[in-house]
Structure formats: C-alpha cells, structure tokens
C-alpha cells in the first residue's frame, strides 16, 4: 500500500463548487501558519472561567478564514464528552456535511474509500491472527488495536512519502499503510528482534514501549526537519511533517508535557495524535482528566481538534489539515481521536475485570469498519467481487502470518547486544564480554551442555 496521501472526489453533500478556505487542492493556498505572534493574550493571558468556576480551554490564536475555531474549540464537558467531535460519517454510515472538513475529502474516489476499507479489514484480520498466535504460545505478548482501525488507517492515508511517523506499540494500522510487513511487527512481540523493519525505508519509526517517550523523539525529529529546510518551501514533494501516536494514558506522563512545550515554542512541524481509547490499561480516562484530553494543548500554545476516531473519513480530513499546517510552517497540532479499545490492553490483560459488557456492546455498535461498509453500500460502491477478493486476501494474510511467525525460531541470547547503537560502544561491548563469560561458565560444569540452564 502506498504511503502517499490519497488523491481527492466529491463526497460532500453540499452544493457543488462550495469549498471552504484552506482546502488541500492545488488551486487554493494552504492553511495560514499559526505563529506565537498570533497568540491571543500570550502565555500570561488569564483563563476564561466556565459557569461552574473551572478554567476553560480556549483557542490560542485569533480565528481566521484558513484556521477556523473548529480547529481550536472552546472545550467543555468531561473527558468523555462526544459533543463537538468532527464527524463526517454517522455510526450508521450516513454522510454528514462539515463546513471546514468537507474539502479535505471532496476528491476521494470510491476506489480510495475501498482502499481504506480494505486496509481496515486486513489490519483487523492481522489483529485476530496475532491474538490467536499469542494464545497458542507463539508470541510472548500482543497489543490489540481492535476498534481503533479508522483512526489509524484514516490518518495514515493522509501522510505523504516524506513524512515520518513515531508510533507507540499499537499502531498496526499505520504500519500497514506505510508498507510495513505486519509479520515484522510481530518480531518484537515474539522477542526475536528489537524492531523488525527499516524506519527510513517506511518513514515509520520502531515501536516504543516506554510510555510517552517517543513524543519527545518525534518533536526533536521535527525540529531537525526545520533545520534541514524541509518545511514551508511550497514544494509538495519536499515539505515534511512528523506524526507521533500515543494513548490517553500517555498524556499523564511528563514526557508528553515536555514534548508539548518543545513543539510549541519551536513551532515544530509535528502532529501529536492522541488515540483516546478511554483506557490506560484498567484506568479510565475519567481518572486522568476532568476535561477532554485535547483541552490540555491550548495551554501550551498548540491548536487542538477532537475527532470521532471511529470515523475514517473524519480522521483522514482532520489529519490532512494538521499535516498541511505543519508542512507549511504553521507548527504543531494536537489531535484527539475519540475511540474505544475493543480488545484488551495487551493479551496479559483481562478487561472484563474493570468494564461492563454493556459498555463494550455500546461501542461494538459503533464499529469503524461497519460504518464505512454501510456508507459504501449506500453508494453501491462495494461490489461482490471486491468483497470476495478481499476475503481471499485476508485468508492469504492469515496463512502468511502463521507460517512466517512459526518459522522465526529463537535468536541466540547474545543477539540482544546487536544493533543497540549504530557504531561500536564500549559499554555494550563490556556487557557482551561479561555475558559471554557467564554463558561459558555453565559449559565448564559436568553435566551441563550449552543452553541447558535456560
């Protein structure tokens, strides 16, 4: 699957020719850059109080025709509020108009939509196969992305080849869109590799298990992109943006706050994409925040937007706008994709201990794949031959995953010292020497053969 942003077809139900300012088409200028000079009041500005006395989050910049208030809404309500979410497809698959974001999907064709549908279906098949393999003892662990396919595939399709992604450990959909063989993702969960793919070749960094740390890596990389002169040139094949994905739980980590500080003051071309799946392992979002997660960003000087993360079209549109702003020199954007983790945190987790089956059923009725399928069917854009071909492709993917994983074998313990650094490192070499000495000590004992102590 190509990692480039999809071409744009008219899906908007509005009158033909109506195109909001800030459209990504070549005939319209990109969104105006947001700069610290445009900050409403600056860092010392007093917060606006809500009726209940709490400080309300508000826009960090004066709204303009190219950067309307929907990108920096005045958030109200608790962290699970669904009001104000950008939505282009209802849970039943009906297309709804949006004055700002219709333009970003206006040229998507039925082929483009089927490509998104295909990617979501295949990623879910991957999820199912990987979970089964872990239960069979073929993987040490697996982190499911079940229910989050729209947020990942939609945003992934908005990327260009030169953009770079810093994932956490659940972004299987983005990895797939960026052309990563998903069996390479499982090398990490089987414990045979530190990563498994070339980050440069795919514009997709290795998974990060340390919660939130990669948001700093992404921000630093984005600052480097600016220094390389790859932002705001006007060349669509050169201008580059960075995206980092993290969960709602990661926003409680200090690393994410530090990344927001550096991204804001350096106007880094980074999209901070929070998949709010409502659970940090067993801890609900309501135990981490009293307002929507995105409401934190304006306090750092970063515009924010909340989107229905189960809506692949809205996820695509919101990310496309944020990437456009970043590439043009407009700085960072915080995106909160409000979704739900239908599976467990990892396969070592039992979500039935902390959430109800009624809640799971509520979100199952909002399945992102079924939503897009309903929309495509309403357009007579899901022919039987396409579905049959996709089913066969899914079966082939399942066989590929099972065969590849079972053939991986087990690496030598000493391989853990390889590829830690790009060049030889004295500390690592000292640890390698100690480990080799430790290993050989078992061979000196009668009755012990190599590997018998493991």
Describe what is shown at a glance:
The chain is α/β, with parallel strands linked by helices. The protein has helices at 110-135, 149-157, 172-177, 182-190, 199-202, 213-227, 254-265, 312-327, 357-364, 368-378, 384-406, 426-443; strands spanning 48-49, 55-56, 164-166, 242-247, 270-276, 279-280, 283-284, 304-308, 333-338.
Overview of this structure, please?
- The chain has 2 domains: 71-406, Thiamin diphosphate (ThDP)-binding fold, Pyr/PP domains (Rossmann fold, 3-Layer(aba) Sandwich), CATH 3.40.50.970; 413-443, no CATH class.
- The model is unreliable at 1-74 (pLDDT under 50).
- The chain is α/β, with parallel strands linked by helices and 454 residues long.
- It is built from 12 helices and 9 strands.
- Helix 2 packs across helix 8 and helix 6 packs parallel to helix 7.
- Helix content is 35%, strand content 8%.
- A 5-stranded parallel β-sheet has the order 3-4-5-9-8, sandwiched between helices. It has a two-stranded antiparallel ribbon with strand order 1-2.
- A hairpin with a 5-residue loop joins strand 1 (48-49) and strand 2.
- Residues 20-47, 55-74 have a biased composition (Low complexity).
- Residues 1-77 are annotated as: Disordered.
- InterPro entries: Alpha-ketoacid_DH_E1_comp (IPR050771), DH_E1 (IPR001017), PdhA/BkdA (IPR017596), THDP-binding (IPR029061).
- It holds the Pfam family E1_dh.
């Amino acid at each position: 699957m190509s990692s480039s942003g999809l071409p744009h077809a008219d899906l908007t139900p509005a009158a033909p020719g109506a195109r909001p300012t800030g459209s990504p088409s070549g005939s319209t200028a990109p969104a105006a850059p947001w700069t610290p000079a445009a900050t409403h009041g600056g860092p010392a500005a007093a917060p606006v109080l809500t009726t209940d006395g709490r400080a309300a989050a508000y826009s960090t910049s004066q709204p303009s025709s190219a950067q309307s208030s929907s990108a920096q809404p005045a958030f109200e309500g608790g962290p699970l509020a669904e009001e104000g979410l950008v939505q282009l497809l209802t849970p039943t698959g009906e297309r709804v108009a949006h004055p700002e974001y219709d333009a970003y999907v206006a040229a998507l064709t039925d082929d483009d939509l089927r490509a998104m549908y295909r990617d979501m279906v295949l990623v879910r098949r991957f999820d199912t196969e990987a979970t089964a393999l872990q239960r069979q003892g073929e993987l040490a662990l697996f982190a499911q992305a079940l229910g989050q396919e729209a947020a990942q595939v939609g945003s992934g399709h908005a990327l260009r080849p030169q953009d770079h992604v810093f994932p956490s450990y659940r972004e299987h959909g983005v990895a797939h869109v960026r052309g990563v063989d998903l069996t390479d993702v499982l090398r990490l969960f089987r414990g045979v590799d530190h990563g498994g793919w070339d980050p440069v070749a795919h514009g997709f960094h290795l998974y990060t298990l340390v919660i939130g740390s990669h948001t700093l890596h992404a921000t630093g990389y984005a600052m480097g992109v600016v220094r390389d002169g790859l932002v705001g040139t006007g060349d669509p094949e050169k201008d580059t943006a960075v995206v980092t994905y993290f969960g709602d739980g990661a926003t409680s980590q200090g690393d994410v706050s530090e990344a927001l500080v550096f991204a804001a003051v350096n106007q880094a071309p980074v999209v901070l994409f929070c998949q709010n799946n409502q659970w940090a392992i067993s801890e609900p979002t309501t135990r981490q925040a009293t307002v929507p997660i995105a409401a934190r960003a304006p306090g750092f000087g970063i515009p924010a937007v909340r989107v229905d993360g189960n809506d692949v079209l809205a996820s695509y549109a919101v990310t496309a706008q944020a990437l456009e702003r970043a590439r043009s020199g407009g700085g960072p954007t915080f995106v909160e994709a409000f979704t739900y983790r239908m599976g467990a945190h990892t396969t070592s987790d039992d979500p039935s201990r902390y959430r109800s089956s009624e809640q799971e059923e509520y979100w199952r009725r909002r399945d992102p794949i079924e939503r897009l399928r309903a929309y495509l069917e309403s357009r007579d854009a899901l022919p039987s031959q396409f579905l049959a071909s996709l089913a066969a492709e899914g079966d082939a993917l399942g066989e590929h995953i099972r065969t590849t994983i079972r053939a991986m074998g087990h690496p030598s313990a000493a391989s853990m010292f390889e590829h830690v650094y790009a060049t030889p490192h004295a500390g690592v070499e000292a640890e390698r020497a100690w480990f080799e000495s430790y290993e050989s000590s078992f061979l000196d004992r009668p009755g012990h053969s190599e590997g018998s102590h493991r």
